[in-house]
Write a structure and sequence with these properties.
This protein is mainly alpha-helical. The protein has 13 helices and six strands. The strands form three sheets. It has a two-stranded antiparallel ribbon. It has a two-stranded antiparallel ribbon with strand order 3-4.
């Protein structure tokens, strides 16, 4: 505790150090006087080498047995089966997409356009499940440019292949129907077409009417020169949407030619011989148009046709101031046509206005037809004196209740007008 113990250095029995040499090391404890020699530890077994054999190796921990490697063949089989299942599932799904959708029957107008727009139309109509189905099928088969526009009827039971086949064949054109009544004038027909025909450009009714009355307007073979009034046959027509007005007019003229049969030609010749007048197709149509415009029903037409035939035969009773030799028809309907009016608009002063259609001032037939007669009126003109027996009526009158009153004399006619006698 604070006391420094100096270490005594014993130099006894130590040899002297020669000059210039390193100092001697301090004596070991056993070299100190009075110190017993140290005891050696007993030798370790490893230090006793009797036969000088090498030491035994140290025991090592037991080696772990490596796990056996799994066979790669099982993995290959698994992958193969997986691919088969995927392929089978994909094929089933594709077959499902290509199969019919069993949609309701539908009429669909396919517009001209790309395959994508057509696929969208079919999808919206429920005929295919996805647009990509049709596009993929067209791409695989190389038929994407073969689809045609038109109006199609689909049953909903077509698969994609059947749809494509139908679209390649082409649909029917989109059509509209128009009915032309008997007795319509050319101007009225033009107005009806302008109202009904779904065309991009409106019909110029005045131009249509002028063309119908123009002798230079193109016409099918068999239509005589002159005005087309009277030859635009009244019927119900079905036209494609893109039909032009010229094509519509040609269709009406072609329909009229169906009325001109060989039997009609023979009858016209027989009438001309009987009446000793020129009576061909134009005269036939003109007289039929007057019968059509004057009659209230088809049942009246044979009688009215006979009335006009009787007047033509009796110029002494139905003479005109502008001619002799043939009677005047004295038809209010012809006067109205010449005055560009209709019968309800006619006034007494119109009867004195001399026009090519005033049959009060001009004998015989007017210059052209005044309307477009139908089949019944055309046949009524031909039947008088043949299928229909001749009669002695020279007058007729329609009462306000539409009752038809034919008369033999002017006195009977006036009495019928005044309601003083019953109609037949």
């Amino acid at each position: 505790s604070g006391v420094k113990i100096r270490r005594r250095v014993y130099t006894q029995n130590r040899p002297a150090q020669a000059p210039g040499t390193r100092p001697l090391a301090p004596p070991r404890p056993e070299e100190l006087p009075g110190t017993a020699p140290p005891r050696r530890p007993p030798p370790r077994p490893s230090d006793v080498c009797l036969d000088r054999r090498p030491p035994l190796p140290r025991p090592q921990p037991p080696l772990r047995r490596a796990a056996p490697r799994r066979s790669s063949g099982a993995l290959v089989v698994f992958l193969f089966l997986f691919l088969i299942l995927m392929a089978a599932g994909g094929a089933f799904y594709i077959q499902y997409l290509l199969s019919p959708t069993h949609a309701s029957p539908v009429e669909l107008e396919i517009q001209s356009g790309s395959a994508r727009s057509i696929a969208r139309q079919l999808t919206d109509a429920g005929l295919i499940r996805r647009p990509e189905v049709l596009l993929g099928y067209l791409w695989v088969t190389g038929q994407d440019r073969a689809l045609r526009a038109g109006l199609y009827d689909f049953t909903g039971e077509e698969d994609v292949a059947a749809l494509v086949e139908k679209l390649q064949q082409g649909g029917r054109p989109r059509v509209f129907r128009v009915t032309i009544p008997e007795g319509f004038r050319a101007s009225q027909i033009g107005q009806r077409l302008a109202e009904v025909a779904p065309l991009a450009e409106p019909l110029d009714v005045r131009a249509w009417t002028d063309d119908a009355k123009d002798a230079n307007t193109p016409r099918p073979a068999g239509i005589p020169p002159g005005s087309l009034e009277g030859f635009l046959f009244p019927a119900t027509y079905t036209f494609p949407v893109k039909t032009t007005f010229e094509e519509m007019r040609s269709a009406m003229l072609e329909r009229f030619l169906q009325e001109v049969t060989p039997e009609v030609q023979q009858r016209l010749q027989a009438i001309a011989a009987r009446e000793a007048i020129s009576f061909s197709i134009p005269e036939w149509v003109i007289l039929a148009s007057i019968v059509q415009s004057e009659a209230g029903s088809e049942a009246e037409m044979p009688i009215i046709a006979g009335v006009f035939w009787n007047r033509l035969r009796r110029p002494e009773l139905f003479g005109c101031r502008n001619g002799v030799g043939i009677g005047c028809l004295q038809s209010d309907a012809t006067v109205a046509y010449g005055a560009r009016k209709y019968l309800p608009q006619l006034v007494a002063a119109d009867l004195d206005e001399d026009t090519p259609w005033n049959t009060y001032t001009r004998p015989g037939l007017p210059e052209s037809a005044i309307s477009n007669p139908g089949h019944a009126a055309l046949q009524a003109v031909l039947a008088y004196g043949f299928e229909e027996p001749e009669h002695q009526f020279f007058y007729f009158y329609h009462r306000p209740n539409s009752e038809f009153c034919p008369s033999r004399t002017l006195q009977e006619h006036n009495a019928a007008i005044q309601g003083q006698r019953a109609c037949r």
